[in-house]
Amino acid sequence: MLRGSGLARQFFEKPPWRPPLKRKTPTTAALLVLSVVLMTALITYSSWIDTSVVFIENSNDKNNTMVVSKKPKTPVPIQRIEIPLNCTASKNQTQTCPTDYPKTFQTQDIDPSLNPVCPDYFRWIHEDLRPWKTSGITRDTVERAKGSATFHLVIKGSKVYVKNYRPAIQTRDVFTIWGIQQLLRKYPGGLPDLEIMFDTEDRPAIRSRDYRGPNATAPPPLFRYCGDKKTLDIVFPDWSFWGWAEINIKPWESILKDVKHGNNKIKWTDREPYAYWKGNPFVDVNRQDLLKCNVTDQQDWNARLFIQDWILEGQQGFKQSNVADQCTYRYKIYIEGYAWSVSEKYILACDSVTLMVQPQFYDFFMRSMQPVDHYWPVRNDDKCRSLKFAVDWGNNHKKKAQEIGKAASSFMQEQLKMDYVYDYMFHLLNEYAKLLKFEPIIPQGATELCSEVIACHAEGLQGRKKKFMMESLVKGPSITNPCTLPPPYDPRALAAFLRRKNNSILQVKKWETGYWESLNKQ
Where is the Glycosyl transferase CAP10 domain (predicted)? Predict the structure, then answer.
């Protein structure tokens, strides 16, 4: 077969014999033409290469020279600079913000239009801001969010000013503001002047039903960590991406590295073939209901459930709460607490199959994940039977189960890496600022905050607060542009996406019903 091809003939067949042609003596004209061609080529070549000298010999002059090059020119790479915190030497001195941090960031992107498109969940930025697309955002609209806000944050001339309204839970406000500071270190000069109201409580507060009808006013824009289908709060990355000092959860970038290593310790097929959950059940009755599914002498629902006592865990040095050490079961359960739970991303990062008890709330990235692709949906009204079916199904379909777990962990590692978290914040705040119909001002009583003011003399929680800040510190300005924000969903495409998600959940329910019907017939 190979010898019959044209390519094979070039290698295997001998060329036909032809008599040698009589060699002609080159003419003066031919030599002149050849010289002109060579000279033109060398001149062209020298226009884009580094300079050096070579000698060209001919019969008339043995010392002709031409400036050419040894190496092609390449763009001089931009050196990534690192700028440490400029902390005062003494704690008795008042820490001030530096004035010499770069005002802009320089990138080495030849063509910014070729930047990678952001992950698909960035499209939800457009949906979250849609309530103000027509009306815009006035000062009065922003001020009406004050009653629910924890703090008022203003960016003016690339500086951050904060006015606190009420205490936050633990250090949520501190690490959220710290995260925004790191965004400004990564993309200095990348954010316009703006004002936002931020609520660090768990549940969304701006009910969509209060802003319907012909005489309805625009809803107040309120930033928080989660939303649901009945509210209009603007969803923002939660504080734990920069660390949760109270319970010794490292910054997300470190967690991703640790979990990736932890995933490789035990192969999926060698893990415990049950559904695992460990957490605080006392924050919500839904979690308390989950505990009924734990294994007993009389019943095994394929679940292994453990209560987390954070006070005792803290006293014992958090030895039993390392996220990277909890990827030892084939299945891990995610269930909401009082609202959405920070634990979601840590559970999805394990390449165990996430068994997601039907959630009410969503964070900024979850809306683009699909059931059966990235997780397995579990009924909220019949948890125990649903969990047992999910585990039995996965143990009988190991290849598909492993694919689901791997898809989720890959999503976390690749599409939720910190670069994309910062890019999400960058685009959300920029798109939000475009809607403002007023000039942002620094409110009376606001304090200028920068990374130095927040971190240099940070104390408490046995040093973890400052440790996590140093660990999550952006070392210096980025040398690449943010990813390219994708356009809004086409209404029909969004409807099809949501329909597919709902159909996948219905399909699992159908399989589950058939499973129990077949067992009851036995």
Answer: 190-439
Cα 390 to chain centroid distance, Å, stands at 28
Tokens 């498109």 -> residue: 117
Residues 393, 267, single domain; the answer is yes
Same domain, 177 and 301: no
Q: Are residues 224 and 297 in the same domain?
A: no
Alpha-carbon dihedral sign for residues 237, 241, 242, 243: positive
∠ Cα 288 347 252 (to 5°): 125
Q: Which amino acid is at 9?
A: R
Q: Please check whether residues 311 and 336 belong to one and the same domain.
A: yes
Tell me the Cα Rg of the chain: 31
Beta bridge partner(s), residue 207: 231
| In-domain check, residue 520 | no
Indicate the burial class of 145 (C-beta count within 10 angstroms; 0-12, 13-18, 19 or more).
Answer: buried
- 288 Cβ neighbours under 8 A, 6+ residues apart: 281, 282
Planar angle of CA 376, 379, 380, nearest 5 degrees: 125
275 and 371 together in one domain:
yes
Number of domains in the chain: 2
Give the amino acid at 8: A
Rounded to whole angstroms, how far apart are CA atoms 133 and 143?
A: 18
Can you say whether residue 378 is alpha, beta or left, with left for phi > 0 and alpha for psi between -120 and 50 degrees?
beta
Other Cβ atoms less than 10 A from the Cβ of 66: the count is 14
Query: Which residue's structure tokens are 């949501």?
Result: 498
388 and 271 both lie in a single domain: yes
What would the pLDDT profile of 300-323 be if each residue is shown by its tens digit?
999 999 999 999 999 999 988 899
Residues 329, 376, single domain; the answer is yes
- The per-residue DSSP string of 440-454 comes to --PPTT-EEE-HHHH
88 neighbors 450 (Cβ within 8 angstroms): no
Structure confidence by residue, pLDDT tens digits, 398-407 = 999 999 999 9
Instruction: Kindly report the pTM of this predicted structure.
Output: 0.85
d(CA 10, CA 14): 8
Residues 214, 291, single domain; the answer is no
DSSP 462: G
Decide which of 351, 382, 415 is a domain's last residue. 415
Cβ-based burial of 331 (10 A; exposed 0-12, middle 13-18, buried ≥19): buried
* Ramachandran class of 145: left when φ > 0, alpha when ψ lies in -120 to 50, beta otherwise: alpha
The Cβ of residue 245 has, within 10 Å, a number of other Cβ atoms equal to: 25
Q: For 30-44, how does the pLDDT look when each residue is reduced to its tens digit (9 = 90+)? A: 555 455 445 554 444
Within 8 A by CB and 6+ apart from 433, the residues are 191, 192, 193, 194
Which structural domain range is residue 268 located in? Answer: 252-362+366-415
**Could you say which DSSP state residue 461 is in?**
G
CB 335 within 8 A of CB 277: yes
